[in-house]
């Protein structure tokens, strides 16, 4: 080393000049504790609504299997495997939890190290740990288990995980393997000659499934870097030494296997699959065919930095943590479901094994939530991922005969309302995404919108739009029509509003494909929102089949039977496709603004429920963009922070985080299915999008600070910019959007 370089190192130590990467800002624990925000406390009713329902997911973006410390043993509805406030770790789980949701984990397996006496009971084996010494990164997790003083480390790629345990004792060190089957159908088998344990955990359905088998399992192949000194299986806490196989018979038995080791450090690598043990083995060999833990950790780190680095920001360290943690959360589901060779099990009742050629097959779509901002964010940053996700929806429709509404665990559900696969596919197509079969997609999108499913059995399974017959007959869903074949059984007004929006998006697709008659019909149906928003009160309101409005009516009631998870006042603003028409329908701009102001100023806005997410961006349509600019900043401040409780209610597949990512950049996709993003107020001094074709789009906010949320003027590529929205095409073309910020609203 030259004298000059030695001097530089002395003057600027390497630690101080090393530049932080995007992944270094991510805190995976955000959203894993009950929410601390006021709106969540006020509006949440179910206990799960108070929680972000986030687990710290270790792996890679959209990975098939993530790894998380386990503090809860179940695969029960609305119970994730990790809660921040829990004090004991029961093991380390290969999980398929849908991030931030209220569904269930499935096909999971847990691995737990222990020293001393062998204890296979899930709860009793739990160990205290020191939160202060815990390391939690998207690509790496480390914790010291106090029981036995065991250093535990995890990293992972998409289909394979890598765990490393450092024991402080030199004997009686065990690793326990448990497939987490609540139904008691788990299977494990030990191959001591291979230093290997394999098994599976059959998947079951909720919502439309009513606990029935999903037709596939979560398979795992676990390999160790050394021979076992002892081994055995267990069932319901009864340990069977030297036994090499056990399986539950469906009577709620807990089953598992264990192995004993003599060395201080034990390395464990795990392949997972949804097709077979052979698939799990191939996935392991294809992704982690070595025993170098650091090598896998570096590969996971690189994958996250590549994904998160699509957006670069300049601002405070706090805001970067908030932003990149949110961006991380948007990249957990939908998950890759196909094996490394493209194999995947057929959708719904189709048990054939298919080959995904030229695309990855995805599963677990929180579509009621994620069509709003998660999928538009993928479309902006990851066009190939979006194309694969849309093609996966097409394949589901082909194999199941209907386009799914809310596909989970590779099956139909009617878990939520709406028909938003149409919105996700339509938005991708309208924004120019290539690489999926839009013509086949349109056939099934159209089928969902125009054909009533008269087959009672398949309708109960979740195929077809709920209450479509009434919607077509009345141009709204009357209060008499409850949907008993769905998890949400009434909610007629919300269904009508969401179908009107879906019809609008489908109309845009029809127009682009040259389907003129469909376009005209669907555009008429897109006005159906007018039939459930009472022009006299100016609020969404239940309506009977004879046209009369429900008499007992409070627009601010936190729950109404005809509204989904919210109030009529909140759902009044769910007309993203025709805000100008809504303004006229409720009595003009002045009355519209008064209603918006009432919602925000009197505490009726509930950010934690997704139908509210676009509301703050509606002020520009009534020529009061400055209120959007101020209130977006306020929502970011009040509804998000970087603590474990810093999520305003359920994350719901990344939607709450996607809202934050867009809003901190300075714009939001109010109406997916159109190419427009409504301008808000950028958080950062500078934001750079590194676009897929090598171009860059920069947003510069001059004079930006906490005290300057208002946009005084703007230029796009040096020319004056006065629009209330920027288009997808303008962003993808690259360029520079410059805002001049102020502490006072423009013109006031």
Automatic annotation (TrEMBL):
GO MF annotations, alphabetized: hydrolase activity, acting on glycosyl bonds
Annotated Glycosyl hydrolase family 92 N-terminal domain residues: 25-273
Domain Glycosyl hydrolase family: 279-742
Record flagged with keyword Signal: yes
UniProt xrefs under Gene3D superfamilies: 2.70.98.10, alpha-1,2-mannosidase, alpha-1,2-mannosidases domains, GH92 mannosidase domain
InterPro entries: 6-hairpin_glycosidase_sf, GH-type_carb-bd, GH92_a_mannosidase_put, GH92_N, Glyco_hydro_92, PNGase
Cofactor(s) in the UniProt record: Ca(2+)
Top-rank taxon: Bacteria
Enzyme Commission number: 3.2.1.-
Signal peptide: 1-20
NCBIfam families according to UniProt: aman2_put
Protein name: GH92 family glycosyl hydrolase
Source organism (scientific name): Arcicella aquatica
């Amino acid at each position: 080393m030259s004298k000059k370089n030695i001097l530089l190192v002395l003057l600027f130590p390497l630690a101080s000049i090393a530049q932080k990467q995007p992944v270094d800002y991510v805190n995976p624990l955000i959203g894993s504790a009950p929410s601390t925000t006021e709106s969540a406390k006020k509006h949440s009713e179910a206990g799960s609504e108070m929680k972000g329902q986030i687990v710290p997911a270790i792996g890679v973006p959209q990975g098939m299997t993530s790894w998380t410390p386990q503090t809860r043993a179940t695969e029960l509805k609305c119970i994730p495997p990790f809660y921040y406030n829990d004090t004991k770790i029961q093991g380390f789980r290969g999980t398929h939890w849908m991030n931030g949701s209220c569904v269930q984990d499935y096909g999971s397996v847990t691995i737990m190290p222990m020293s001393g006496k062998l204890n296979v009971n899930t709860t009793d084996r739990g160990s205290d740990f020191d939160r202060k010494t815990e390391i939690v990164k998207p690509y790496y997790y480390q914790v010291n288990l106090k029981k036995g003083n065991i250093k535990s480390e995890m990293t992972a790629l998409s289909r394979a995980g890598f765990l490393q345990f450092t024991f402080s004792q030199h004997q009686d060190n065990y690793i326990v393997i448990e497939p987490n089957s609540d139904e008691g159908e788990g299977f494990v088998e030990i191959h001591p000659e291979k230093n290997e344990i394999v098994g599976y955990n059959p998947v079951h359905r909720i919502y439309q499934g009513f606990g029935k088998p999903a037709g596939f399992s979560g398979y795992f192949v676990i390999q160790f870097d050394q021979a076992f000194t002892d081994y055995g299986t267990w069932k319901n806490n009864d340990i069977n030494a030297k036994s090499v196989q056990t399986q539950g018979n469906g009577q709620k038995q807990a089953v598992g296997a264990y192995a004993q080791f003599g060395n201080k450090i034990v390395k464990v690598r795990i392949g997972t699959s949804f097709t077979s043990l052979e698939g799990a083995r191939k996935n392991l060999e294809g992704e982690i065919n070595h025993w170098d833990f650091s090598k896998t950790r570096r590969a996971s780190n690189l994958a996250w930095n590549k994904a998160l680095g699509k957006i670069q920001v300049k601002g405070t360290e706090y805001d970067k943590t908030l932003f990149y943690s949110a961006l991380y959360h948007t990249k957990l589901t939908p998950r890759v479901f196909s094996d490394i060779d493209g194999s995947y099990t057929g959708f719904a009742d189709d048990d054939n094994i298919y080959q995904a050629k030229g695309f990855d097959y995805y599963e677990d779509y929180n579509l009621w939530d994620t069509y709003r901002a998660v999928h538009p964010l993928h479309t902006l940053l990851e066009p190939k991922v979006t194309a694969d996700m849309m093609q996966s929806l097409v394949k589901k429709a082909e194999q199941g005969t209907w386009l799914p509404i809310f596909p989970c665990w590779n099956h139909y559900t009617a878990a939520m309302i709406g028909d938003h696969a149409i919105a996700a596919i339509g938005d991708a197509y309208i924004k120019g995404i290539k690489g999926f079969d839009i013509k086949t997609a349109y056939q099934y999108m159209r089928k969902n919108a125009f054909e009533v499913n008269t087959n009672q059995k398949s309708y109960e399974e979740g195929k077809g739009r709920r209450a479509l017959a009434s919607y077509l007959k009345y141009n709204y869903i009357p209060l008499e029509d409850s949907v008993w074949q769905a998890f949400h059984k009434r909610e007629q007004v919300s269904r009508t509003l969401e179908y009107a929006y879906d019809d609008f998006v489908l109309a845009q697709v029809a127009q682009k494909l040259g389907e003129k008659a469909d376009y005209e019909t669907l555009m008429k149906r897109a006005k159906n929102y007018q039939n459930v928003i009472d022009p006299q009160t100016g609020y969404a309101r239940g309506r009977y089949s004879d046209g009369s409005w429900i008499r007992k009516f409070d627009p601010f009631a936190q729950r109404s039977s005809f509204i989904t998870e919210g109030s009529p006042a909140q759902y009044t603003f769910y007309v993203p496709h025709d805000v100008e028409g809504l303004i006229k329908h409720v009595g003009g701009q002045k009355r519209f603004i008064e209603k918006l102001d009432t919602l925000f100023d009197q505490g009726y806005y509930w950010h934690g429920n997704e139908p509210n997410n676009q509301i703050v961006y509606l002020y520009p349509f009534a020529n009061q963009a400055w209120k959007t600019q101020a209130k977006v900043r306020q929502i970011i401040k009040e509804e998000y922070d970087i603590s474990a409780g810093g999520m305003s209610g359920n994350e719901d597949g990344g939607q709450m985080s996607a809202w934050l990512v867009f809003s901190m950049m300075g714009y939001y996709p109010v109406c997916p299915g159109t190419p427009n993003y409504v301008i808000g107020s950028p958080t950062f001094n500078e934001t750079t999008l590194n676009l897929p074709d090598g171009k860059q789009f920069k947003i510069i906010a001059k004079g930006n600070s906490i005290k300057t949320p208002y946009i005084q003027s703007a230029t796009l590529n040096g020319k004056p910019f006065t629009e209330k929205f920027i288009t997808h095409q303008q962003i993808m073309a690259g360029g520079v959007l410059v805002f001049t910020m102020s502490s006072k609203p423009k013109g006031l």
